[in-house]
Amino acid sequence: MKKIFWMAAAVLVVAAITLWRFYSPAGAPTVTIYVSHDEVFSEPILKDFEKETGVRVRAVYDTEETKSAGTMNRLIAEKNNPQADVYWANEPVRAEVLRQKGIAAAYVSPNAAGIPETFRDPNGYWTGFAARARVFIVRKGATPQPASITSYTDPEWRGKTVIANPLFGTTTTQIAALFVLWGDERARAFMQKVRDNAVKLSPSNGDSADFVARGEFTFSLVDSDDVVNRIQQGQPVELVYPDQGPDDIGCFIVPNAAVLIAGSPHPESGKKLIDYLLSKETERKLAFSDAAQIPLHRGVPPPPGLEPIASIKTMKANYFEIAAKLQAIQPFLKSWAEP
Questions:
Q1: What is each CA distance from 42 to 45, 83, 90, 304, 305, in whole angstroms?
Q2: Most buried in the list 40, 120, 137, 245, measured by CB within 10 Å?
Q3: What is the pLDDT of residues 94-133, one digit of tens each?
Q4: What is the CATH number of the domain that holds 262?
């Protein structure tokens, strides 16, 4: 009996917390946002928006199990009855999928001015901000150091490299970008050479970074925040931007993206929230949090240990083509990742 009582009490507490989170006083402006960026970093930004504007934020976050795709799939399922006003995507390919499916609405925020055109949809269906760079984490003191993504195929590093499973996350996006940039034949040949060079597959970028930090492997491609966080922890690793030479393809950049949802319940509040997300102040906050995001606005300092976006040679990325290619190469990546 006591067990049933405590179970019922727990259910009531959870229900009360949920109702409190989604409750707004009568007449108070509200906005609903679906978020695939880490809750620990995005929630403080949304709380600051509430305090500064008086607009009540209802936030729905991806769980670790549905990272990046959960809220996006929910938006797709709700297309004919939108519940969200804004989507905060942790990479622009998710935002581009929504544009292609007619779920995004065009909105050019005044705060988009100054963000490079490469990192925003030309018609305003999504706008990038606060980016990660795809960089090498390298064991400190390793000589020579990898200089290009093609270093994965160098016999010198056979069996000494690790990469996150290409079926998930930013690794998938980067490989899709290579297929777009190089064409299918060259990209498939590159991936086969990587496999033949005895690369280690890890579950995630974080695991790859830990392998290198422990000295089990020499280098890995990861997100820039993975390296910054481990350097701050005193781990013996270094950060190297790949492909920075005059004839190289450049470093792949993964910005967050803000999307206004078509037919949303509170479009004006949604626009106000997007303006806030795209502001220099929000980029500054994300830069100096543990998220260590690289601002896309000029004049906003980068996190300690990272270069400003204008100093990095970046890959020319067509996110429209990357979004389509990402789906097309899934069968190939599944077979490639099989042991």
A1: 5, 20, 10, 20, 22
A2: 137
A3: 999 999 999 999 999 999 999 999 999 999 999 999 999 9
A4: 3.40.190.10
Closest Cα partner for 92 from 274, 297, 330, 319?
319
Tokens at 220, concatenated: 């890995």
Q: Are 50 and 56 in contact (CB under 8 A)?
A: yes
Domain that holds residue 122: 2-131+255-302
> Is 149 within the bounds of a domain?
yes
Helices (H), the chain: 2-22, 39-53, 70-77, 92-100, 169-182, 184-196, 205-213, 224-232, 267-277, 280-287, 319-328, 330-337
Number of alpha carbons in the 13 Å side-chain half-sphere of residue 33: 34
Total domain count, the chain: 2
Q: Is 309 helix (H, G, I), strand (E, B) or coil?
A: helix
Whose CA is closest to 120, among 111, 112, 131?
Answer: 112
Whether residue 172 is found in the same domain as residue 268 = no
**CA neighbor of 138 nearest in space, from 207, 236, 243:** 236
* Structure tokens that stand for 15 in this block: 């229900």
pTM: 0.88
Q: Which tens digits make up the pLDDT trace of 185-203?
A: 999 999 999 999 999 999 9
